[in-house]
Write a structure and sequence with these properties.
253 residues, mainly alpha, 10 helices
Length: 253
C-alpha cells in the first residue's frame, strides 16, 4: 500500500475543499440549520411525540444523514469529473498507485468532508436540543458507512458524466427522491400499508432507520438488514468503480 501517496492525494483534496469552504462546509450547515429550525422547532411543536421522543429528536438523524450523503457524494463526484475535464486525472493515473489505492484515496477524501459537515450539524443539533445518543459504536458505523457508500457512488457519477448536466442526473433522479422517501421526516407507521411496503424496499430507509436507532433507540426495521445493505454497497460499488478505473471507462477516450 502506497501510504505516502494516499496521504498526499487526500491532502490535495482537503486543500481543494478548504479553498471553497463557504460552498463545501458552510452551505450545508446553513441548510441543516434551516431544516432543524423549520421541521423540528416550528413544525415539531404541532406534532405529538413519536415513539416516546420529541419530533425534533426523531427527524434530526435523518437531517444528519442527508447532510452526510450530500457532502460525500458532492465531493467525490466533482473531484473525479473536474479532474477528467481538466485532464488532471492523468497525473494520478501515471503515479505508482494501484487502481484500488486511487479509489481509496478519493473515497477517503469524500468521507473526510462528510465527517466535517456531520460534526457541524451535530453541533447545531446540540444547541437546538435535538441530539441524543444510545449507541456510539453503531452511530459511528452508520456515519462512516453511509459516507463511504456515497463517496464511492459519487466517484461512479464522476466517471459516468460527460458534462455538467449528466453529473446532476444521479442526484436529481435517484438520490434526492430516494432520500426524501426514506423516512427522514415521518414514521413508517404514518403511511398506508402499500406505501410502507414500498418504503422497506428503499435502501435509504435503512440508512435513516439505523442512524435513528443509534441516536434514539427507535427502529422500524431489522438492524441487521441495514448493516448488510451498507457493507454490501461498499463492497459492490467499490469493486465496480475499481474495475472502471482499471479499464479506463470514460477516462481513456
Amino acid at each position: 500500500m502506497n501510504y505516502i501517496g494516499l496521504i498526499t492525494l487526500v491532502q490535495r483534496e482537503m486543500v481543494r475543499m478548504f479553498r471553497v469552504v463557504t460552498q463545501t462546509i458552510l452551505a450545508p450547515l446553513i441548510s441543516a440549520a434551516l431544516y432543524i429550525f423549520i421541521f423540528g422547532t416550528i413544525v415539531g411543536t404541532k406534532i405529538d411525540e413519536i415513539a416516546g421522543v420529541t419530533y425534533i429528536e426523531f427527524v434530526f438523524p435523518g437531517i444528519l444523514m442527508l447532510s452526510i450523503i450530500t457532502a460525500a457524494f458532492a465531493h467525490s463526484s466533482s473531484a473525479i469529473f473536474m479532474h477528467k475535464y481538466f485532464n488532471i486525472i492523468e497525473e494520478v493515473l501515471i503515479t505508482p498507485f494501484s487502481y484500488l489505492e486511487i479509489v481509496i484515496g478519493y473515497a477517503v477524501a469524500g468521507v473526510a468532508r462528510a465527517i466535517l459537515v456531520a460534526l457541524g450539524v451535530l453541533g447545531i443539533g446540540v444547541l437546538m436540543g435535538a441530539v441524543s445518543l444510545v449507541s456510539l459504536p453503531l452511530f459511528l458505523f452508520y456515519v462512516f458507512g453511509v459516507a463511504m457508500v456515497f463517496s464511492l457512488l459519487g466517484m461512479f457519477a464522476g466517471l459516468f458524466a460527460k458534462n455538467f448536466d449528466q453529473l446532476s442526473m444521479l442526484t436529481t433522479f435517484i438520490i434526492t427522491p430516494f432520500t426524501y422517501l426514506g423516512g427522514i421526516f415521518y414514521s413508517l407507521t404514518m403511511l398506508p400499508p402499500t406505501a410502507q411496503t414500498l418504503t422497506t424496499l428503499n435502501p435509504f430507509f435503512y440508512f435513516v432507520d439505523g442512524i435513528r436507532y443509534s441516536m434514539t433507540g427507535i427502529t422500524e426495521a431489522h438492524t441487521g438488514i441495514g448493516l448488510l445493505v451498507i457493507i454490501g454497497l461498499i463492497v459492490g460499488i467499490g469493486g465496480v468503480v475499481t474495475q472502471l478505473f482499471r479499464i479506463g471507462w470514460r477516462i481513456r477516450q
